[in-house]
Structures are given as C-alpha cells and as structure tokens.
Amino acid sequence: MTIDEILHSTDVSLALRADEKNAAIEEVLSLLRGDERVSNWEELRNAVIARDAPPIEHEGRVICIAHGRTRAVSELVVAAGRSDAGIICPDTKLSVNLLFVVGIPAAVDSEYLRLVGSIARVCSDSRQMAELLAAPDADAFVECLTAGSARL
To answer: Residue 19's domain spans which residues?
Structure first.
C-alpha cells in the first residue's frame, strides 16, 4: 500500500492556524471528520489524544506523528498539516512544521509501522523535507510524500 492510497489530498492542510501542539493535532484531526473510512470520529479523536505525540527531530527538522489505535477506522487513515510559522511543542526548542495524524485499525500492525517509518524517512531527508514545505497544494504534498517514500 502506498502513501497516496492512505493519505488523501482532502485530508491535508497546508495552512494550519494552530501554533501549539495539542491545538494543531485537533486541527489536523478535524480533516478526518466525514472521511468514509472513519465510522466514529469522536472515538478516533479520543484514541489519538490519549497518546503522547513526541516531536521527532533530525538535523534541525522536526515533525510530529500523533496516532491512535481504534475500531473507529475501517482501514489505516492519515491526515497531515503544515505550519509555516511552526508549532510549539514543549518537548523541543525547535518548531514543528509538519504534523501527521494516523488512525490505526485494531488489527493492523505491520502496515502502520511501515507507513510511519516511510513518513519519518522522507522527512529526515533535507531535500524531500524542503519539497514538502514548499508544496503549492495538497495534491503536490501527497505526490511529494509518495514519491519520496518510493525512492527510499
């Protein structure tokens, strides 16, 4: 399964307004409201909020991947948000520019780990991270993430 099969452009915001981690997670989560793969948005929200989402730092770049395992999703779902100003996380002095929210079905393990690993690897590459930060629209963002994952 490729990233573009899991992350839909309708579930990407390239202009997050929130400047604090928890508010940004809520904002990105809201993108999944109404997604046909989510049967109970509140249950998904509760599963994601219940888990800590520490920032992932690599060579001065920081991302955050918030996730939760729940029966409220029929398949793996992802939403993504980008903040040009940066999101404040108490666990790092650097600002987070990319935040991902992942809903994991109760029975999925290996596919989730592969997905999160792919996102982390793409974002740790300075060229690919720059492309994600410069993507002009949600379709280009998804294409960049998908292509970057295929190259790794």
So the answer is: 3-151
